[in-house]
């Protein structure tokens, strides 16, 4: 698959590394330009590009940027594509985003509103980047970590779940984008590195934000 990664921080570059290692055609981008990514991209087996180059013709786009940056991105050009939303809302960093701050919508739903026609799937927002590198395990391993996967489109979720599994984690269906509050910061599953049964229990036991 052609996969574009927007954001070259810890999560973005780590996922780019993992996806490139699986043989996908990965383009890594950031706000500072491809000239700042040449060495990193070469080292991880990806191509350095602009955001526009990363998303052009992409089957899947990984979004790993501060949430406040989302409205500045050309996500309106991604109709039909799958977006992996690895972002989290942190008010201290992102400022007050009314709909999210007042719990009228999830951060994933807010992101989806900025990407009309795309299929947003929330995953990789609950795990520390180093654990993506160090704690991936083959299917069936007793110590394999599970990750919640939320989205509205069944086909998009299937695509993303296959990538999660290939990277080395068990995907767990976490419902729709409107239910993805169950995997946001300060919920039982966030940063917990649980197995499948643990993730299912954590999602079920999460209390709605007030």
Explain the overall architecture.
The chain is α/β, with parallel strands linked by helices and 210 residues long. It has nine helices and eight strands. Strands 3-2-1-4-5-6-7-8 form an eight-stranded mixed beta sheet, with helices on both faces. The radius of gyration is 16 Å and the shape is globular. The chain starts with a strand and ends in a 5-residue tail after the last helix. The mean pLDDT is 97.
Main attributes?
single chain; 210 residues; alpha/beta; 8-stranded mixed beta sheet; 8 strands; 33% helix
Short description:
With 210 residues, the chain is of the alpha/beta class.
Stretches with pLDDT under 50, minimum 5 residues? none
Rounded to the nearest angstrom, the distance between the terminal CA atoms is: 40 Å
Largest sheet: 8 strands, mixed
Tally the beta strands. 8
String of helices and strands: EHEHEHEEHHHEHEHEH
- Number of helices in the DSSP assignment: 9
Shape: globular
Structural class label: alpha/beta
Strand content range: 15-25%
Radius of gyration: 16 Å
| Mean pLDDT over the full residue set | 97
**Strand arrangement, major sheet:** 3-2-1-4-5-6-7-8
| Helix-residue proportion | 25-40%
């Amino acid at each position: 698959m052609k996969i574009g990664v927007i954001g070259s921080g810890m999560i973005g570059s780590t996922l780019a590394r993992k996806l490139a290692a699986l043989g996908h055609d990965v383009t890594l981008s950031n706000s500072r330009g491809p000239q700042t990514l040449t060495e990193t991209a070469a080292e991880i087996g990806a191509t350095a590009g602009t955001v526009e180059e990363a998303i052009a013709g992409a089957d899947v786009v990984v979004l790993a940027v501060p949430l406040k940056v989302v409205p500045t991105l050309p996500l309106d050009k991604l109709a039909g594509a799958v977006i992996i939303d690895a972002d989290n809302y942190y008010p201290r960093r992102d400022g007050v985003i009314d709909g999210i701050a007042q719990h009228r919508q999830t951060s994933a739903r807010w992101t989806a509103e900025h990407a009309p026609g795309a299929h947003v799937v929330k995953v990789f927002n609950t795990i520390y980047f180093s654990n993506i590198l160090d704690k991936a395990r083959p299917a069936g391993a007793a110590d394999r970590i599970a990750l919640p996967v939320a989205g509205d489109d069944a086909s998009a979720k299937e695509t993303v779940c296959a990538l999660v599994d290939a990277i080395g984690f068990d995907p767990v269906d976490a419902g729709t984008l409107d239910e993805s509050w169950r995997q946001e910061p300060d919920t039982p599953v966030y940063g917990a590195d649980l197995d499948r049964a643990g993730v299912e229990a954590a999602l079920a036991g999460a209390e709605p934000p007030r």
